[in-house]
Design a protein that fits this description.
The complex is a heterodimer of chains A (about 110) and B (about 110). Helices cover about 0% and strands about 50% of the residues of chain A. Chain A has about 110 residues and is mainly β. In chain A, strands 2, 4, 5, 6, 9, 10 and 11 form a seven-stranded mixed β-sheet that branches. A four-stranded antiparallel β-sheet of chain A has the order 1-3-8-7, with no helix packed on it. Chain A starts with a strand and ends with a strand. In chain B, the strands form two sheets. In chain B, strands 2, 4, 5, 9, 10 and 11 form a six-stranded mixed β-sheet that branches. Chain B has a five-stranded antiparallel β-sheet with strand order 1-3-8-7-6, with no helix packed on it. Chain B has about 110 residues and is mostly beta strands. Chains A and B meet through strand 4, strand 5, strand 9 and strand 10 of A and strand 4, strand 5 and strand 9 of B.
């Protein structure tokens, strides 16, 4: 089974610029998550999708972050405008009740805002 | 609000030693607990998943235990190898219809040849 695909792997942008990350979950996994991991910290949930609907976006900074999951498959996370404190690794994950809600994570996108 | 703590934050051991990583969580009403491994600059690799009704899980040289009532889990690594060097993250799922993970900050393990 193919894993969770993310792109790009790395991105460097200047503050106030915009950036977008893409995620393709494991086929058939209805639930998709975006997590933010700041250096030295554990990942923190940004948003949870069930199919193409948002389940929880309470920790998403909505003034600058947005996310969508068209057709319940791929997802895009966007930051506009970026701030220095957005420098982090952005991880996409999917989980399946058939696997007892075990998670599979992508390799992540490392964002550096300068 | 669920909080997950991992002790120690960093650990350095000589090759061949057995070691234990600790994880504690504040709310015992969990659905499952997962241990992940993270190599520098990489994503997370799931190592072991323990359901709330289980006491332990084993995979190769790894053994994870869960004491839900006391809010604790341990990850035991036998006969450590330099290739085990990585950050190990513990995370719990609280269930109740939402299977979001709450993570600890991780333990950075270095196995010295």
């Amino acid at each position: 089974e193919a894993g969770v695909a993310q792109s790009p792997r790395y991105k460097i942008i200047e503050k106030r610029q915009s950036v977008a990350f893409w995620c393709n979950p494991i086929s058939g996994h209805a639930t998709l998550y975006w997590y933010q991991q700041i250096l030295g910290q554990g990942p923190k949930l940004l948003i949870q999708f069930q199919n193409n609907g948002v389940v929880d976006d309470s920790q998403l900074p909505k003034d600058r972050f947005s996310a969508e999951r068209l057709k319940g498959v791929d997802s895009t996370l966007k930051i506009q405008p970026a701030k220095l404190e957005d420098s982090a690794v952005y991880l996409c994950a999917s989980e399946s009740y058939e696997q007892n809600y075990g998670y599979t994570f992508g390799s992540g996108t490392r964002l550096t805002v300068v | 609000k669920q909080e997950v703590t991992q002790i120690p934050a960093a650990l350095s051991v000589p090759e061949g030693e057995n070691l234990v990583l600790n994880c504690s969580f504040t709310d015992s009403a969990i659905y499952n607990l997962q241990w992940f491994r993270q190599d520098p600059g990489k994503g997370l690799t799931s190592l072991l998943l323990i359901q709330s009704s289980q006491r332990e899980q084993t995979s190769g040289r790894l053994n994870a235990s869960l004491d839900k009532s006391s809010g604790r889990s341990t990850l035991y690594i036998a006969a450590s190898q330099p290739g085990d060097s990585a950050t190990y993250l513990c995370a719990v799922t609280s269930g109740a219809g939402s299977y979001q993970l709450t993570f600890g900050k991780g333990t950075k393990l270095s196995v010295i040849p």
